Amino acid sequence: MAVPVSTDYAALAADIKRWARELGFADAGISGVELGTDEAHLQRWLDAGHHGEMEYMARHGTRRSRPAELEPGTLRVVSVRMDYLPPGTRHAWEVLGDGEAGYVARYALGRDYHKLMRNRLQKLAERIRASVGEFGYRAYVDSAPVLEKALARNAGLGWIGKHTVLINRGAGSYFFLGELYTDLPLPVDPPATAHCGSCSRCIEVCPTQAILGPYRLDARRCISYLTIELKGSIPEELRAPMGNRIFGCDDCQLVCPWNKFAQDASEPDFAPRHRLDGARLVELFGWSEEEFLHRTEGMAIRRAGYEGWLRNIAVALGNAPGTPAVIAALRARERHPSPVVREHVAWALARHGEPAAP
């Protein structure tokens, strides 16, 4: 049935935010669909080629920045966030300082968030339907061309920092975002204001100098891109700066002063699996493809693929102390069927002064 004309949309908006928190989201906000300034920023980024091989960033044209083109009839966007930092996790700087351990971005240590959040957004939509009747909506969690950070900023959930990550004044930046596009004319929230000030720690700390300046990220140099999105060879000049980062990178968040307010995840499924908050590189490099697929089932790490996983770890082993165990692990993969893996293993061995096998 149609939404009743007498619907109190201000009360409904308050209910939606309350229901979102009851469903496990840390916060929710509502925005309109005007993203003209952000569309221009995106186009400049694409024109500069900073998206690298992520051709999907350009493929959808203006649908990414014009919600009503992606989902006709959209008037408002309900943005939600969910904290992901698992309590009790080995400290990030400790892992980064341990050359024999592999560093996995904190968001990827446990269960993949996509399906979990999408299911909860669907439950949120069902609660709205139970209250007002049938209405138009579509839930998204990294599943469509959506300018999620700009929408969340406009919904009051945080500002986009100089590292291009969303920052919440009371919760830092360790959280996921999701959206519910809707045709309900809900009242919108005031957008968040920026509070980075003169701080430039995120720009200065980036291991590969991927942050070219405030709000300017060259994904082609970003370790998250190199270890996840890039499917071929990692540029040789960027391998040493990667250190022991084998899936993603958190450095720009680790130095952000606002993350002193970061909140622990309330979702137990985000807890680290297989000791990935600091597992030994040699052990991880020894996983067979079957083990990799089994152990990463339901995890974001699957996105790298087995070949990418071995490529990333080979680079980390090249940057690790040249112990007999490290050299033996690399030798064991020297004749791997993948030319990409072989190339990075050969580079790692050369870093340790080890000649290629005859």
Task: Give an overview in words.
The protein contains 16 helices and 10 strands. With 358 residues, the chain is of the alpha+beta class. The chain has 2 domains: 168 residues, no CATH class; 121 residues, no CATH class. The longest helix has 20 residues.
How many β-strand runs?
Answer: 10
Which stretches are low in confidence, meaning pLDDT under 50 for 5 or more residues running?
none
* Percent strand: 5-15%
Shape: elongated
Total tally of structural domains: 2
Please state the structural category. Answer: alpha+beta
Rg, Cα atoms, Å: 22 Å
Count of discrete alpha- or pi-helical segments spanning 4 or more residues? 16
Distance linking N and C termini? 74 Å
Largest sheet: 4 strands, antiparallel
The strands making up the biggest β-sheet line up spatially as 1-2-7-4
Please write the string of helix (H) and strand (E) elements.
HEHHHEHEHEHEEEHEEHHEHHHHHH
The overall pLDDT average reads 96
Helix content: 25-40%
